[in-house]
Amino acid sequence: MTTTCCCYTVNEGYLLPTLLSAVQARQHLSAGTADVVIICVGEANGLTRAFEAICRNYGIGFIVVPLSLLEGMPLTFARFFLCRVLDPVYEQVVYIDGDTQVHASLDALVGVTLEAGKFLAAPDPMAMMIDAPGRLWASRRRYFRSIGIPDGRRSSYFNAGVLRFRRSDWETISAECVRLCRSKDGAYLFHDQDALNVAFGDACQPMSLRWNFPIFLINAGVEDVIKPSIYHFMSNPRPWTGAFAPWGRPLHTVYRDLVGLHPDLRPLVKPLTRAKFFKYKAQQRYKQFIESHVWGHPDVRARIMRFESQAVV
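^ that's the sequence the OP posted. Answer follows.
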């Protein structure tokens, strides 16, 4: 039995996109390198039982845990309770958000050797722009200072959507992050991600955007250089809601195909109203135009590639 796993934490609302990501992850892991496990927070019911059977067919573990596990914390904090749920055999963990797609091998990320007390994360898009001029970024710099992220560390602010850590370290990290968030009583704009950056920014080592590629960076023209393994869809709309820019039809139809194979998943499909569809279509075209100019600027592209040159893996 492997001692490494790739895991997800979700509720019923995210079961469909998470299943797709988990199936893709299973397909892009060499035999024996890692298990794939989905942890669903909620109550066991007909849907979760059907989902468990589907997961079993793909060789994916599925665990339902009660909401009480989170001790009153929001769902996004579920990653901090992983060690209470995962089989003790797992010593190495890759955490992946459910709003992702896996398009290439995960073996290098799974197999990387970590120093004691260290974990891996990719830079957040804010880190790439935090020193840019303008009121938005001046406001973000003030915010970072206010929560305890020093100026010297703001450009290494990381995204928590994909994390690679040792289980033994994660127990300590999780306990401190939960304690910190409770003491701040909602002061963090970016919740668990802020807590991780405040308390353990020095413990984080950079990994390539290859492992956590924000989908809008397609507009930066760096996709062919970075060659993403994991695409991360960080805001609405997301590809399971429609074939919008910048991902288009290919990254949307995979969800439809998955539901076609497993009709029990059909209740998880929430069709858009006609008005919302056209709103998203116009919004995404506009964002693509703006982001192509901002993120595709040579200075920003150079900044992104500097981050890449510092990556451990």
